[in-house]
Amino acid sequence: MAGKLMLASASQSRRTLMENAGLQFETEAARIDERAAEAGIAGEPLPPDRLALELARLKARDVASRNPGALVIGCDQTMSLDDIVFHKPADIDEARRNLKTLRGKTHRLNSAVVLVRDNRVLWENVSIAELSMRAFSDEFLERYLERTGDAVLKSVGCYQLEAEGIRLFKGISGDYFTILGLPLLPLLEELRTLGEIDG
Question: Global pTM?
Answer without folding.
Answer: 0.91
